[in-house]
Amino acid sequence: MSNAFVRIKSGTYRNADVSGKSFQLVEQYKRTPNGGFVTVKNGGAFPGLPEQIRIKVAGVAAYEFVTGSDTAQEVVAAQDATLETDEQVMTRIRERFEILTEMTQAATTGDIRAMIVSGPPGVGKSYGVELEIEKATLFDQIAGRKLRAEVVKGSATPIGLYQALYKYSDENCVLVFDDCDSILLDDVCLNLLKGALDSGKKRKISWLSESSALRREGIPDQFEFKGSVIFITNLKFDQMKSQKLRDHLDALQSRCHYLDLTLDTMRDKVLRIKQIAADGVLFEGYDFEQVVQDEIIEFMNENKMKLREMSLRMALKIADLRKSFPLKWKLMTATTCMKA
Ligand SMILES: Nc1ncnc2c1ncn2[C@@H]1O[C@H](COP(=O)(O)OP(=O)(O)OP(=O)(O)O)[C@@H](O)[C@H]1O
Ligand SMILES: [Mg+2]
Q: Which of 26, 27, 22 is nearest to 72 (CA)?
């Protein structure tokens, strides 16, 4: 990365006007079929968004280099002032997860037809959704209105997807696709989903070719989908590189509520782990004293650049090692969880 700073003369980021603002330059102007951009460091100007952002500009003339170390220092100071505090980060993350909970509830009542949840691995996406689905199924069993839900993990073929949509096509059904990115990247699957999630009153889906498998199972080659769908994915829809894929996913995104959990930076992830630990739920079941819990988190924080992943899942892996090997858990962690 360069040490250069640029002032945007005229440009936008996510439709927000950033004209007059200065940023640290990452990469000079680039032109794409969709327009051009200059890549700069976020520097806290847009909390919750990636470290590096692309400012839409008309060309190299739309920004100027800011020279002199004084100006550069001013930029850094100004950006520091807008940086989120730890508390603000934790509040932002907590709010996002509360929204995840509320949106999942709304899907179980049919108020929300479709939602995409995006976030890095091991931060609690599946956990949050599954907990709410379980609660809803339990409650509805008691209330005599049985919610039917299924979590599909891994992959699905187009015909498998068609069958799953049929099986859960009733109003009180929720279908969760957890880490099923292959269906989001397959043309036939995506077209089925587009039909299932269309915003019109009737959401008709058809299977156009003759299929003995469907006939055998008594599945019609056309039906109306009235259920709700939740997608959980590590893909960041708005950062997909391939234009073809982007257009494709845009069509799906436009039919869904899109919830990005915004755990993009290392700091975000560490704070999320601290938060869940502080809530007292992360190390539940390990019988660890508080000092041991703190020790694990501190160890993770010290080695954050070496760990293969910074996640709740990693915290639990290390907790396993701490429990089984109280004397050499650090060595075991270094060997099995850290980059060589
Ligand atoms: N709020 C929470 N309280 C306690 N434990 C949690 C919480 N959220 C997640 N966990 C635990 O953290 C681990 C990772 O969570 P989860 O499997 O939900 O991650 P994920 O975001 O779905 O990851 P991936 O994208 O890899 O599927 C699990 O073991 C889960 O039980
Ligand atoms: Mg998951």
A: 22
Ligand 1 centroid–CA 280 distance in Å is 15
With a 6 Å cutoff on the Cβ, whether 122 touches ligand 1 is yes
One-letter amino acid at 225 equals: F
The residue behind tokens 């660890």 is 288
Element containing residue 65 per DSSP (H, E): strand 63-66
Sign (positive or negative) of CA dihedral 264, 330, 317, 104:
negative
From 93, 127, 317, mutation site for ligand 1 pocket: most ligand atoms within 8 A of C-beta: 127
CA dist., res. 333 & res. 307, Å (int): 9
Q: Whose CA is nearest to atom 4 of ligand 1?
A: 282
3-state secondary structure of 236: coil
Using a 6 Å cutoff on CB, does residue 148 contact ligand 1?
Answer: no
pLDDT digit string (tens) for 124-170? 999 999 999 998 888 777 777 777 899 999 888 899 999 999 999 99
State in Å, rounded, how far the first CA of the chain is from the last one: 25
Q: Are 319 and 283 in contact (CB under 8 A)?
A: yes
